[in-house]
């Protein structure tokens, strides 16, 4: 088995996780910028975080033979503070020429506020001005449906956005079709409690089709499972999916989306 | 897969989860004090399980979702609790 982990917060994980992922067949890992579990006190904290994502973490992953890529942004959980968010957005261009940066993400919404929306629009503008791919986080639980609608509307309202260069992540049964129908890629996140189980993820793939969908574990500092993607592949085998179909979903699809960035290389 | 094959694969897991839900509701009944909007949403969501069309998962998620469309003026906090407070009480 081979797979690409397109969304994992490896700065929160141990070296054992790197070893386990590589052992399971992981060929590359991609790390969006996210919330650290606490609010950073200044933009300088983000400067160092971006250095970690673009410099230190790729070196750490390389020790385990795993190519590491990243996405940059201020996450929506900290976007309510617009002064801080603007300062962080102004920092990002300094890092966009780093060799492992794939785009702007994970941007999006958390509580679906006006400030979050304004910062989302600023991120989209930044991505368009620098010809970057976009990775979007959708809100949690009761806020997901409304937030996904708002996100789709904002993206569709910017004529510069090419939907095939945007992935909207953390879809569930009530949002997946909305995202795909609008022409965007959809990401299904496999979590032990919230978001999606392997069985439900396969249900969605069977119902919506495999085209333009990827699976990810989004492992971070909370309860999450770094091997969720290969475990879901095993579940697909139990359901009788072919090895080719599994490979297409967990390797071919993320490779197809991510290869829209010339920086993404995988054997 | 056939229905028989799916039952072979998932019945025990689904049975276990169903009993967990029953036990959760029993536990709430035995407890004292007032419940809140989350239990009301949960009971509404349970009704969706009796539907006959294959969109139960979507409908359960919609039951817990904020159906409004206007952005909030300010964030009430960072977290989500799993059910929309403005739903049926």
How would you characterize this protein structure?
The complex is a heterodimer of chains A (267) and B (89). By secondary structure, chain A is α/β, with parallel strands linked by helices. Chain A has an eight-stranded parallel β-sheet. In chain A, helix 3 (82-91) runs parallel beside helix 4 (114-129), helix 4 (114-129) packs across helix 5 and helix 7 (198-208) crosses helix 8. Helices cover 43% and strands 15% of the residues of chain A. Chain A has a single domain, classed as TIM Barrel, CATH 3.20.20.140. Chain B folds into two domains: 1-33; 34-67. Chain B starts with a helix and ends in a 25-residue tail after the last helix. Chain B contains three helices and no strands. Chain B has helices spanning 3-30, 37-47, 56-64. Chain B is mainly α. At the A-B interface, helix 4, helix 5 and helix 7 of A face helix 1 and helix 3 of B.
Topology of helices and strands:
The complex is a heterodimer of chains A (267) and B (89).
Chain A: E1 3-5, H1 15-24, E2 26-32, H2 43-62, E3 68-72, H3 82-91, E4 101-108, H4 114-129, E5 133-137, H5 144-157, E6 166-168, H6 176-181, E7 185-189, H7 198-208, E8 213-216, H8 228-238, H9 243-258
Parallel strand pairs in A: 1-2, 2-3, 3-4, 4-5, 5-6, 6-7, 7-8
Helix pairs in contact in A: 2-3, 3-4, 4-5, 7-8
Chain B: H1 3-30, H2 37-47, H3 56-64
Helix pairs in contact in B: 2-3
Task: Write out the strand line-up for the largest beta sheet of chain A, numbering strands in chain order.
Answer: 1-2-3-4-5-6-7-8
What percentage of amino acids of chain B are in beta strands?
A: under 5%
Overall spatial form of chain A: globular
Q: Greatest chain-chain interface?
A: A-B, 29 and 30 residues
Key words describing this protein structure:
heterodimer, A: 267 residues, TIM Barrel, 8 strands, B: 89 residues, mainly alpha
């Amino acid at each position: 088995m081979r797979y690409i982990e397109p969304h994992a917060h490896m700065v929160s994980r141990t070296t054992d996780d790197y070893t386990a992922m590589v052992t399971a067949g992981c060929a590359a890992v991609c790390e969006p910028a996210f919330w650290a579990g606490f609010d950073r006190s200044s933009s300088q904290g983000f400067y160092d975080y971006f250095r970690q994502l673009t410099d230190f973490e790729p070196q750490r992953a390389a020790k385990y033979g795993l190519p590491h890529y990243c996405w940059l942004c201020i996450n929506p959980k900290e976007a309510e503070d617009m002064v801080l968010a603007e300062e962080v957005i102004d920092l990002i261009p300094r890092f966009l020429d780093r060799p492992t940066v794939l785009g702007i993400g994970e941007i999006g919404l958390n509580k679906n506020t006006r400030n979050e929306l304004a910062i989302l629009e600023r991120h989209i503008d930044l991505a368009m001005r620098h010809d970057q791919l976009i990775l979007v986080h959708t809100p949690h639980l009761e806020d997901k449906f409304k937030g996904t609608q708002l996100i789709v509307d904002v993206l569709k309202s910017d004529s510069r956005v090419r939907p095939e260069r945007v992935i909207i992540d953390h879809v569930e049964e009530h949002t997946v079709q909305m995202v795909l129908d609008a022409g965007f890629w959809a990401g299904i996140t496999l979590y032990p409690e919230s978001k999606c189980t392997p069985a439900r993820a396969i249900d969605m793939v069977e119902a919506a089709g495999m085209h333009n969908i990827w699976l990810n574990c989004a492992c971070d500092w909370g309860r999450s499972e770094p091997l969720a993607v290969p475990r879901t592949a095993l579940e697909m085998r139990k359901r009788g999916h072919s090895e080719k179909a599994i490979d297409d979903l967990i390797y071919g699809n993320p490779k197809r989306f991510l290869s829209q960035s010339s920086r993404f290389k995988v054997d | 897969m056939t229905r028989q094959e799916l039952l072979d694969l998932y019945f025990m897991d689904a049975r276990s989860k169903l009993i967990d839900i029953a036990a959760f509701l029993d536990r709430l009944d035995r407890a004292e004090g007032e419940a809140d909007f989350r239990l009301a949403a949960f009971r509404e969501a349970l009704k969706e399980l009796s539907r006959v069309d294959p969109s139960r998962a979507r409908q359960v998620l919609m039951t817990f979702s904020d159906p409004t469309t206007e952005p909030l003026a300010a964030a009430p906090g960072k977290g989500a609790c799993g059910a929309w407070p403005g739903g049926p009480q």
